[in-house]
TrEMBL record:
One of its GO terms (cellular component) is cytosol. This is Flavodoxin family protein. Residues 52-71 are annotated as: Disordered. The keyword Oxidoreductase applies. Residues 1-186 form the Flavodoxin-like fold domain. Keywords: Oxidoreductase. It holds the Pfam family Flavodoxin_2. One of its GO terms (molecular function) is NAD(P)H dehydrogenase (quinone) activity. Belongs to the NAD(P)H dehydrogenase (quinone) family. Signal peptide: none annotated. The keyword Oxidoreductase applies.
């Protein structure tokens, strides 16, 4: 099976990138012939701006741009989608949000027909790995865990029918020892497809 790991952070030496690489390493360590591809949105220069062309595509008045089609095809080849991202302002970074805005498009991720919603991604298990600087008590106290799960797990992926299998928060990323976060990422990668199969 094949995992597409999408990472959104401008610094290739960030904890976010290290977590993505450990996840991919874990997928390979599962010793089942699984593979993983890391899609580095910043390094690849993905344009997150939702343009007039994207709007026309949403209204089914034009085909999607070629960069959007390429991303959709990359997801179509995957048996699981993993998003690894830093928490910016209690949500996704703008680059990742723009990727979702453009790629999870009407006609591909979902279909609006005659006032009815058709969810088209029921076959795509999603794993979310958020990297945050705050401690768990801060997330708990202010309701950030629930707010992010409502917005992202339900609001985006639930709308498309993609089941969110894992919604993991790797917190306190500013600590000097990041061993716990990296081990958690490798373990998630190692068990990724056993969770999907279950």
């Amino acid at each position: 099976m094949h995992a597409l790991i999408v990472v959104s952070h401008p610094d290739p030496e960030s904890l976010t990138h290290h977590v993505a690489r450990k996840l991919a390493e874990g997928v390979a360590l599962a010793d089942e012939g699984h593979t993983a591809e890391i899609a580095d949105l910043a390094a690849e220069g993905f344009d997150p701006r939702f343009t007039a062309g994207d709007h026309a595509s949403h209204r089914k008045q034009a085909p999607p741009d070629s960069d959007v089609t390429r991303e959709q095809q990359r997801i179509d080849r995957a048996d699981a989608l993993v998003l690894v991202y830093p928490v910016y302002w209690w949500s996704f970074p703008g680059l990742l949000k723009g990727w979702i805005d453009r790629v999870f498009a009407n006609g591909w991720a979902y279909d609006e027909r005659d006032g009815k919603l058709v969810k088209r991604l029921g076959h795509l298990p999603v794993h979310l790995v958020a990297i945050g600087g705050a401690d768990p008590g801060t997330y708990d106290r202010h309701g950030y865990f629930d707010a992010m799960k409502t917005q992202i797990d339900h609001g985006i992926f639930g709308y498309c029918g993609a089941p969110v299998v894992t919604s993991e928060f790797l917190l306190e990323s500013d600590l000097p020892d990041r061993t716990a976060q990296l081990e958690a990422a490798r373990d998630l990668g190692r068990g990724l497809f056993s969770v999907v199969a279950a």
